[in-house]
Amino acid sequence: MKNLIAIVSIIAMIAACSSAQKSGDKTSIGNSSVKNDTIRIANDSLDYEIIIFEQGFNSWLATQQPRGFYNQNYLEQKNWRYVVTYNSRVTSYPYSITGLYPQQIDYQPEIDYGYEVNYLLYNYFLYFQREYNQKL
Predict the structure, then answer these.
(1) pTM exceeding the 0.85 threshold for the entire prediction
(2) In angstroms, rounded to a whole number, what is the distance separating the alpha carbons of residues 53 and 61?
């Protein structure tokens, strides 16, 4: 699962490289920490962490369906579909040369990552598709 964190972080870093970073105050949202457009979700007992630092993601997320709108099973199914497509693009030409797909995401459907992780990962995939004109 640590690979999932690393991959999402790498994706966000690559996307953020072309834009200037802001500095600001750090606030807490549930299990999440937000620093401008950086969202961190951690659960030490399950040994996972997701960090999304994509300029504009936080404000975009605020306009999406609220937490609890989708059930966890729906989010897990969508995330699995997105991860399979994403991972296939890591090694397939011409996607592999774009830099948008740096390495595979280790998302295993039999692991219960919890609602918050699935919610943010799902919304990041939606954001990724819209922002970079990709269809997963």
Answers:
(1) no
(2) 12
**What are the Cα distances from residue 59, in Å, to 3, 99, 123, 125?**
26, 24, 12, 15
Q: For residue 103, give both structure tokens.
A: 């390495």
Q: Which residues contact 111 (CB under 8 A, 6 or more apart)?
A: 1
Sheet holding 38-43, edge to edge: 26-29, 32-35, 38-43, 48-53
Phi, psi of 32, deg, nearest 5: -105, 150
Distance CA 101, CA 110 (A): 24
Nearest CA to 65 out of 56, 74, 55, 53 is that of 74
Residue 107 backbone zone (phi > 0: left; psi -120 to 50: alpha; other: beta): beta
User: Looking at residue 69, what is its pLDDT?
Assistant: 97
Instruction: Answer for the pair 38, 13: CB distance below 8 angstroms, yes or no.
Output: no
Determine the angle formed by the axes of helices 115-131 and 72-91, rounding to 10 degrees: 50
d(CA 86, CA 59): 24
Inter-CA distances, 79 with 34, 84, 112, Å: 22, 9, 12
Q: Which residues of the chain have pLDDT under 50?
A: 12-13, 15-35
